[in-house]
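Feature request, filed as a ticket because there's no other form

It would be nice if the structure record came with a short human-readable summary line next to the tokens. Right now we just get the raw output. Example of a typical job, pasted below so the devs can see what we mean:
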Amino acid sequence: MTNSLRIWRRMEMPDPIRVHRYQSLPEQGPKVLFFSGGSALNKISRVFKKYTHHSVHLVTPFDSGGSSARLRAEFDIPAVGDLRSRLMALADETVMGQPEVYALFTHRLEQKADPMALKHQLQQLVMGVHPLIETIPNPMKALIQNQLAVTQANINEDFDLRGASIGNLIMAGGYLNNQHQLDPIVFLFSRLVKALGEVKTTLNASLHLGVELENGEYVLGQHRITGKETDILPSPIKRMWLNKGLRHVMPTNCHIADDRVDAIKTADLICFPPGSFYSSLLANLMPEGVGRSICANPNPKVYLPNLGVDPEQQGLSLMERVSRLISTISADTNDAGPYSSLDYLLLDDAYDYGEIDSAFLDELKVTVIKTPLITCKQHKYDEHLVARALLSFV
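Raw output as currently delivered:
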């Protein structure tokens, strides 16, 4: 029988010795787990892989806008755009990587091209004669052609290819070709681009987001919540749930797979990073089993809040965001988790985040850590400073 122990140490922020150690041997780096979606973490991820090849990225499959929306509507699949973009952020960019595969996966078809010309380009890709795929060696080339052929065979004649991501089209074909499972194709593409980290969706389910606003209005769909593709919500968000479809309010939920449970429970550090507060961060924490797994992990949990203006968090102070983050996790645990849901609030030492209520945070047993995280007076985190700060926790 084994027992779990919490070991405390004096922490230096940033810790140059630890940072240098990880940078020297990234293949032996710590297992840092990020709950994230969207592109907000991609720059940090590209830097993070220089320090550890064992980061884990659980991304949301609930996006319903952009080119992902067309694929979701066509095949009733989880959103694959965030998976693809994070895989690309973690791809090996050294001479040992696969630059041809990277170029293909990150390419988008022209937004204003003639639809027939785009269908011809897709046919060229399937046949292996398009310039983007010609130089990829077999068997990788054949594997990619096979997935694209599945997508091509299953899309309707009037499917809009304008602005479509080739990587998303490949992943959609892989999903259809693997009994509607994303994990096998994500694993394959991770190998193809030699991803220096692990990327998975929190759930392998085609669900959407639903919110109730303070004014009593209901809104369905991630793309209607973010305030980026549509108008900003007319009222702050009161609550959020996972929903079946986009037409009617039909709350649902699913339990995360065992490998996700294990990844969360065994992480050396859990980070709640910047990104859209509801549709990227809290959405990732809502599936059954996520909160319980977080609170079964004795290691540090860190919240790095957004800078600037996030349309989703209108009316929410930083302290209220901390409270909602914790309550979302606690909703899955019945307030009975053996360990904490949040330990540290990581802040830039000069940025104005608004009121910091020390008594409130003390009651929650959340410690504030302030360190330089922003350079050049820009309201953006410096990815190098953030990586070094996070690695100083482990």
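Something like this underneath would help us a lot:
The chain has a mean pLDDT of 91.
The first strand starts at residue 32 and ends at 35.
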